[in-house]
Specification:
By secondary structure, the protein is an alpha/beta fold. It has one domain: Glycosidases (TIM Barrel, Alpha-Beta Barrel), CATH 3.20.20. The protein has a 9-stranded parallel sheet. A 3-stranded antiparallel sheet has the order 4-6-5, with no helix packed on it. Helix 2 packs antiparallel against helix 8, helix 8 runs parallel beside helix 10 and helix 14 runs parallel beside helix 16. The longest helix is centred in the middle third of the chain and has 23 residues. The chain is globular.
C-alpha cells in the first residue's frame, strides 16, 4: 500500500491546472444537464467483435490484503485538540496501535457534519477541534494525521459523510455561519432533528464533489471513503418537487440515479487528481436497505467497468456474528450467510470487495435471537475468527469499526485479547 505514495507525488508536480480551475471545472461538470448523469456500458454493435484484451489492472487496488480501521468522530472526541503537540501525541499513540495490529489502512473521518478537520475553503472547522464549529484550532489535524500515518507505513483515506450536516439538535451543538445549513438553506432537508443536503439537488451534489476535489488536491491522502448515509429518509415528500420536475416515473430508480451520480462524480474527481488514489464506499450489510431505503445501487457500483466505474471498492458493514437470527427465525444476516451472499454478486475486475467487521460488538453481542449471540463476542478472538473465514473465502480485505472499541479507554475487557489474536493472524508483533 505504501509504495504508491512516491508514485502519487510525481503527477502532483506535473499538474497544469490550478486548484481553483480544477474545482470550478468539476462543479460545472457535476451540475446541470441530466443532473449528474453517467454512462453505462453498451454491448458491442452487431458485426463488431469486442476487444479481446483483458481489462487494465486498477492502479488504486493494493497488491495484498486491505486491513483497515475506521477512526470516527467518536474517536476524535477522545483526543486532545488543545495544541498541535497534544493532538500529535494522541494521534501517534492511536496509529501505533494500528501498526501493532498489522493494519495497513486508516479510514479517518474528516468531514462528519458538513464540516472539516482540515483547512477548507468550502466547509467550516469541525466543532471537534475546539468545541465551536468554525473556530480555527491553530493547526491542521489532517496534515498531522497524514504525516504520522505515512511515517508508520499506514495509508490514510479521508472518510467523508457526503450529505449529513446535523444528526440531532445536539450534534453538532452549534452550526457555524458558513455551514451550508446557513449559506444554502434551499439545499437542506430536515428529517427529525437532523439536517441533510437534499440528494435530489445537483447544486448540492456538485458542492460535495468540490469538497472531494479539494481534499485530494491539497492533502497527500491515499483515497477518499464515503460511509453508508445517503438518502436520509424514504418519505416521498422529501424531494417531491424535484421528482415532479424531473418527469421520472419511478421514484426509487430516480433516487438511486441521484445517489449514483454523486458517487460517480466523486470517484471521477479523485481519479482526475491521481488514478492511483482510492475511492470507496461502505454500504450497509443489508442489501435490501441499501437499495430500497438508502437508494444505493450497490449492484451497479460493483459491476460497472472501465470509464463507467463508480468505485474502486465496496466495504459492506457485516456487523453480525455467527448464527445471528432475526426474531422471524431468519438467519440471512448471520456472518456465515451474508458474506457468501455479497461475494456471489457480479463484480467488475477492477472493483474490490471488502468487509466491515463490528469491533464494537466485542464483549457486548449483536442482539441476535440465538442464545450464542453474546457469548461468541466474549471469546477474545471473535474478530480473528471472522478474518480467518474471510481469507478462506477469498475476500480481498476487511475493516474494523471502530478504533475506540479496541484501543480506547472505554474498550471492553476482551479488547486486548482480540487485538493479540488479530496481530497474530496478521504476522504483527503484538
Amino acid at each position: 500500500m505504501t509504495q504508491r505514495r512516491g508514485a502519487r507525488r510525481r503527477p502532483r508536480k506535473a499538474r497544469r491546472v490550478s486548484r481553483r480551475a480544477f474545482l470550478a471545472g468539476l462543479a460545472a461538470a457535476a451540475c446541470g444537464a441530466g443532473a449528474l448523469g453517467w454512462r453505462r456500458s453498451r454491448p458491442a454493435a452487431a458485426g463488431n467483435e469486442p476487444d479481446p484484451s483483458p481489462a487494465a489492472p486498477n492502479p488504486a487496488l493494493p497488491s495484498g490484503e486491505w486491513r483497515a480501521v475506521w477512526v470516527s468522530y467518536l474517536d476524535w472526541a477522545a483526543l486532545d485538540f488543545s495544541s498541535e503537540a497534544a493532538f500529535r501525541a494522541g494521534a501517534a499513540q492511536l496509529l501505533d496501535h494500528c501498526a501493532a495490529l498489522g493494519l495497513n489502512t486508516v479510514l479517518a473521518q474528516v468531514r462528519p457534519f458538513g464540516d472539516a478537520l482540515y483547512r477548507s475553503a468550502l466547509y467550516p472547522w469541525s466543532h471537534l477541534c475546539t468545541g465551536v464549529q468554525g473556530q480555527d484550532p491553530g493547526f491542521d489535524p489532517l496534515d498531522v494525521l497524514v504525516t504520522e500515518a505515512h511515517s508508520r507505513g499506514l495509508s490514510l483515506e479521508a472518510w467523508v459523510n457526503p450529505y449529513r450536516l446535523r444528526s440531532s439538535a445536539a450534534m453538532p451543538p452549534n452550526l457555524a455561519q458558513n455551514n451550508l445549513a446557513n449559506t444554502h438553506p434551499e439545499w437542506v432537508c430536515t428529517v427529525g432533528d437532523g439536517l441533510y443536503l437534499n440528494p435530489a439537488l445537483p447544486e448540492a451534489a456538485a458542492y460535495v464533489v468540490q469538497g472531494v476535489a479539494e481534499l485530494v488536491q491539497n492533502y497527500a491522502v491515499d483515497g477518499v471513503h464515503f460511509d453508508d448515509y445517503f438518502y436520509p429518509a424514504t418519505d416521498p415528500a422529501l424531494d417531491a418537487a424535484q421528482f415532479h420536475a424531473s418527469g421520472a416515473g419511478d421514484l426509487g430508480a430516480w433516487r438511486r440515479q441521484n445517489v449514483t451520480s454523486l458517487v460517480k462524480a466523486a470517484h471521477d474527481a479523485v481519479k482526475a487528481a491521481d488514478p492511483t488514489l482510492r475511492f470507496g464506499v461502505s454500504p450497509q450489510g443489508n442489501m435490501d436497505n441499501d437499495f430500497n431505503e438508502q437508494y444505493s445501487d450497490i449492484y451497479t457500483w460493483l459491476s460497472a467497468e472501465g470509464d463507467d466505474a463508480v468505485v474502486d471498492y465496496l466495504c459492506p458493514q457485516v456487523y453480525w456474528g455467527y448464527g445471528y437470527q432475526l426474531k422471524s427465525g431468519s438467519t440471512r444476516f448471520a456472518f456465515e450467510n451474508i458474506v457468501p451472499a455479497w461475494l456471489s454478486l457480479p463484480r467488475a475486475s477492477g472493483t474490490a470487495l471488502y468487509f466491515g467487521l463490528g469491533a464494537y460488538r466485542v464483549g457486548v453481542g449483536d442482539g441476535g435471537a440465538n442464545a450464542d449471540s453474546t457469548a461468541q463476542w466474549c471469546t477474545g478472538e471473535a474478530l480473528a475468527r471472522q478474518v480467518d473465514d474471510l481469507r478462506a473465502q477469498g475476500a480481498q480485505g476487511w475493516a474494523l469499526y471502530r478504533a475506540g472499541s479496541l484501543f480506547g479507554s472505554a474498550a471492553p475487557a476482551q479488547a486486548p485479547a482480540e487485538c493479540a489474536a488479530l496481530a497474530a493472524r496478521n504476522g504483527a508483533g503484538g
